[in-house]
Amino acid sequence: MNCLDNLEEEVIKILIIGDSGTGKSSFIDRYIHEKFNDYYKPTLGVDFAIKRIKTHEGKHVKLQFWDIAGQDRFPLLTRSYYRYARGCLIVFDLTDVASFNNVKRWKSCIESNCDADSEVPCILVANKHPSKATTVADLKEERRISYPEIEDMCNELNFVQWTETSVKTGLMLQETVQYLIDVILGNSPKFYTPSEYEVVDKKSIVDIAIETNVNTPSKTSCVFCS
Which of 77, 98, 154, 209 is the most exposed place for a label (fewest CB within 10 A)? Predict the structure, then answer.
């Protein structure tokens, strides 16, 4: 038996939704197991994963991640999958305009199916899921959605915040989940952005990921803007 089973835990159910192929399963795998697989089979129905953490305040929390399929044949999932959700990550692919446009549909699913007596905070996740990009310069060639477009979507649909991530490198995954947890628990979200992409154009994504540990906000934050 896990020693944590004897501790009093707060359970936080987090939904992760969006079109198929946007990197939802990869997001969970990278966050929980710190690994990335180049090939993932599409999720059929609902996938489920758990991670136990200890917050900055010393509280033990059991995170339940519910990966809800993005296939068109699952447009209206039963309300039970959404029940008791306390937070949500809606993921789209920066190289796929259709997945970005469908964010409105997924946000509507949250509002229609989650418990009516509680507002579920959602973060809009712009995932870098390019096929060959290894540098920021490569990503600039492949991306199809601009910062202003994401910002407008975030404001229009009342997301609590938005961020760019890379499931391949782990860029911004820990920070994104921690931000959502802080919002759910009523804490003041603490966040530091990576260096501005334009400034570190010649660096690899891995270099940028390392820089997320530097406690210096970027001068022109493009994610988790205040």
Answer: 98
pTM: 0.76
**198 phi and psi, to 5 degrees?**
-65, -35
A 10 A CB-CB count for 23 gives: 26
Q: What span, in angstroms and rounded, lies between the C-alpha atoms of 76 and 98?
A: 19
Answer yes or no: are the C-beta atoms of 125 and 96 closer than 8 Å. Answer: no
Give phi and psi for 206, each to the nearest 5. -60, -40
* Cα angle: 178, vertex 20, 157; to 5 degrees: 55
pLDDT in tens, 155-190: 999 999 999 888 888 888 988 999 999 999 998 776
Cα 177 to Cα 84: distance, rounded to the nearest angstrom: 18
Rounded (5°) CA angle 106-99-28 = 75
Strand order in the sheet with 161-165: 46-54, 60-68, 10-17, 87-93, 122-127, 161-165
Token pair belonging to 8:
């009093």
Mind giving me the DSSP string for 117-186? TS---EEEEEE---SS--BHHHHHHH--S-HHHHHHHHHHTT-SEEEEEBTTTTBTHHHHHHHHHHHHHT
Residue 16's nearest CA partner among 60, 39, 49, 40 is: 49
